[in-house]
Write a structure and sequence with these properties.
This protein is of the alpha/beta class and 813 residues long.
Length: 813
């Protein structure tokens, strides 16, 4: 019997487990109460993955020999494998009580404590283990992992390196060191350590997955995908690997492959909250909002404190127009994870959208203070709307742009596009947008596409948005020489399509607004990349070369807040479609719910642009102008309820607010002229809505803000010859509004001047706007052809210089 036991123990030590098991059973057949054989048979079953059977064998061993410390220690290991962490810790403590100097029992106790989230206690247990046995490599590796979780990275690295020095073949120590190096940002060293761990333990699917994640962090997505697939060859249904594989696919824009991987992760592990949440983000990115919300809700059911799932659910609810529910979901996210500064900004922006101003100013200050701390990210467009500071706008945009660095690095060959030819052929101009439908941007720029000089330019449209089958969509598709739908294309595929089309200048019309694809721009799809019209601020990136503006919206002293080189267009930067149709039948005041008598102030800006301070100015106007009403764009029930409450609180009857339902653009333009004066907002101005009002002859009163987003209406008014309607302070704005409301003759003269100027004013001279923009494109290309870097310039000065050169050339002898 002893000979069988000794031989079985040798087999167990060298990994010949089946032979060891057979011999241990032989011993037990002779002596069923042989505690050592029961203990070792339990270890054999544990190594074979038969945890329940292992626990039964070791339990019998300690039943027969209650003072068997090693068996109690290993009983803790098996119970830990079964997820019975409390019992595991108790078993380890029993071993320590019997044999206080048993280092392995202290290390096993540390593992159980760490599984319970008691990291400090685990560190103490590991330190005791290595103090008792300074040559215990496994305990040093465990200590390194616990110190890493505590954030003590330098100490963690020392512990892992000590483990490696003691046992160079210990894969767990190399893996632990790789984790530490990765958290320190030393990714190349981390990947080398992961590879050593994999070489020592090639069956480690988890380690291959971590290597894949590190590769993805450096932008090497193809290698990351290969590592995840190799992990899946070892463990085909490992949910964590499937999730990370999907993330690598999604980072490159491979939507279907990502969807397949996420779905497989959910199928492999239905209780995997992270997988449900990540699946939701992919569905959301493709506009499948109901499915996305369902995925987020499932993640929350599985993990009620999952802050990111609550935040993502809020985003889906916001897009569905369920703004009050979205605010509550965001608040739950912050309650579970207060450091999420991005969510604080989103809450404030949503509260702007429902005009919930109670305590909002203080909340905005707090959110922006959080964003200014350290290196915190926040959505750039929301910050544009919350803060009037161009410095805040630049800081936020730069931090946001960093998230595209990895994808830019994933295709280094795309970072050095060909030089634009100096002469010969037409310049190829591409326009990138998700709004090639009935959208505010499209209603401004459609005619510019049609008016481009086809002898010098070939025009391409690249659409990232859906096809709503509208008349505008049909018109836009026809306006381009080539139109491509990139919705189903990954970011890399889209960039390669644009590059293969030989685009010289790619013009982005979206910036950081909804459904934008800055990843395509980060991949340097074209040698020259320009931001225009759709985003009133800097993108804070190295992948946008130029921003087209005018000297009113972006004064020279503001250039330091832009990473793009500024191209100044003459007069007003904004293109305007002179083909915007106005319905032939103008409704009556009564048709629109307006009183037949009395002054009509109006503001058809989106609700998030209305601030408490601005609303207070408007309410004082209603008080000072008897019989007047304020005509607003109908948004949602929350907006109406909040504004009615605010109106009452300011001593004005809520009936003096009239809400206009949304209408198709021709019908909306027809009713717009019923108003007497359009009241603009600050710090965010009217943009398209201001040009629409001016187009139908309605004067706009604005107040010029500090940043681009708050100066657009002023640019339009200056360009149409009505600079007196640009106030420099809210006090002047309020006084001007009251003055105009009480002087109908003066207001009528402004209307006549606007009508006289409309046909020839720069904002509505689409041919001249097109020629100015084309001159800008030609100069950008000339600089590139000459090997010169992007540099700011003024198109009016450029045209004047060219005219001067031409005149000198043509002057007689």
């Amino acid at each position: 019997m002893q000979r069988d036991f000794d031989q079985a123990s040798r087999y167990l030590q060298i990994g010949r487990l089946a032979e060891a098991e057979a011999l241990y059973r032989n011993v037990l057949a002779v002596e069923p109460r042989h505690a050592e054989s029961l203990h070792h048979l339990g270890l054999t079953a544990w190594k074979l993955g038969r945890f329940v059977e292992a626990a039964d064998f070791i339990r019998r061993a300690v039943d027969f020999r209650p003072y068997y410390a090693e068996a109690w220690s290993n009983f803790g290991v098996v119970l830990q494998a079964l997820g019975r962490t409390d019992e595991a810790a108790a078993a380890c403590r029993k071993a320590i009580g019997l044999q206080p100097h048993l280092a392995r029992a202290h290390s096993n106790l540390g593992n159980s404590l760490q599984a319970q989230g008691l990291n400090d206690a685990a560190i103490a247990a590991y330190r005791q283990a290595v103090a008792l046995d300074p040559g215990f490599a496994g305990a040093f590796a465990n200590l390194g992992d616990a110190l890493r979780r505590q954030g003590a990275l330098e100490e963690a690295a020392i512990a892992c390196r000590r483990a490696i020095a003691l046992q160079p073949s210990l894969a767990e120590a190399h893996r632990g060191l790789a984790h530490v190096l990765r958290q320190q940002g030393r990714l190349e060293e981390a990947m080398a350590a992961y590879r050593r761990a994999i070489a020592l333990g090639p069956e480690s699917a988890a380690c291959l997955t971590e290597l894949g994640n590190a590769l993805a962090e450096t932008g090497r997505f193809d290698e990351a995908i290969a590592a995840h697939r190799q992990a899946l060859e070892i463990a085909p249904n490992r949910a964590e690997t499937l999730l990370n594989l999907g993330s690598a696919f999604q980072a490159q824009g491979y939507a279907q492959q990502a969807l397949d991987a996420y779905s497989a992760a959910v199928a492999a592990r239905p209780d995997f909250a992270d997988a449900h949440c990540t699946l939701g983000t992919l569905l959301a990115s493709h506009g499948r909002w109901d499915e996305a919300a369902a995925a987020y809700r499932r993640a929350i059911e599985l993990a009620p404190n999952f802050a990111e799932a609550h935040a993502n659910l809020a985003g889906a609810l916001r897009v569905q127009g369920r703004l009050v529910e979205a605010i509550e979901a965001y608040r739950r996210a912050v309650a579970f994870k207060p450091e999420l500064s991005e969510i604080l900004v989103e809450i404030c922006h949503l509260r702007q959208q429902v005009c919930d101003w109670t305590g909002l100013e203080e909340a905005q200050f707090a959110a922006l203070d959080k964003v200014r701390e350290g290196d915190r990210r926040a959505p750039p467009f929301a910050v544009l709307c919350l803060s009037p500071s161009p410095e805040d706008h630049l800081r936020t945009a730069r931090r946001w742009a960093r998230s595209f660095d990895a994808i830019a690095q994933s295709r280094p060959a795309m970072g050095a596009p060909a030089v634009v030819p100096a002469t010969g052929g037409r310049l190829r101009i591409g326009y990138l947008s998700s709004d090639f439908n009935q959208h505010a941007t499209a209603s401004l720029i459609a005619e510019l596409f049609e008016r481009h000089d086809r002898t010098r330019f070939e025009i391409f449209g690249y659409s990232c948005g859906g096809d709503e089958a509208s008349a505008m969509r049909t018109r836009l598709v026809a306006a381009f020489d080539t139109f491509a739908d990139l919705r189903a294309s990954s970011h890399v595929q889209a960039a390669e399509r644009i590059r293969n089309d030989g685009i010289d200048i790619l013009v982005d019309l979206k910036g950081y607004t909804q459904n934008s694809r800055p990843e395509i721009l980060a991949l340097r799809a074209a040698p020259i990349q320009v931001s225009y019209l759709g985003y009133p601020g800097t993108m804070g990136s190295s992948f946008i070369d130029y921003l087209m503006a005018d000297r009113f919206v972006l004064p020279a002293d503001q250039q330091r807040f832009y990473d793009e080189k500024i191209v100044y267009l003459p007069n007003c930067y904004q293109a305007n479609d002179t083909g915007r149709p106005v319905a032939p039948l103008r409704p009556s005041r009564e048709d629109c719910g307006l009183p037949s008598e009395g002054f009509v102030f109006c503001c058809f800006n989106n609700s998030y642009k209305i601030t408490s301070e601005m609303f207070g100015v408007w309410m004082r106007l209603l008080r000072d102008v008897p019989g007047s009403v304020l005509w607003l764009l109908g948004a949602n029930e929350a907006v109406a309820a909040n504004l009615d409450r605010e109106t009452t609180a300011r001593g004005i009857a809520p009936q003096r607010l009239i809400y206009a339902p949304k209408l198709p653009l021709p019908e909306h333009l027809a009713r717009l002229s019923l108003a007497d004066l359009f009241l603009d907002t600050l710090p965010v101005n009217a943009h398209t809505t201001a040009s629409e009002a001016l187009w139908v002859g309605l004067p706009v009163l604005t107040c010029a803000g500090e940043a681009f987003i708050g100066r657009v209406a002023g640019s339009l008014l200056a360009a149409v010859g009505l600079p007196e309607l640009i106030a420099s302070s809210l006090e002047d704005y309020a006084a001007a509004a009251a003055f105009l409301a009480q002087r109908p003759a003066l207001l009528a003269s402004l209307r006549r001047r606007l009508a006289d100027n409309r046909g020839k004013a720069p904002p509505f001279d689409i041919m001249q706007t097109t020629r100015n923009i084309e001159a800008a494109y030609l100069h950008m290309a000339e600089r590139r052809s000459a090997g010169q870097p992007p540099a700011g310039f003024d198109v009016a000065e450029l045209i004047a210089a060219r005219v001067s050169v031409a005149l000198r050339r043509d002057r007689p002898g």
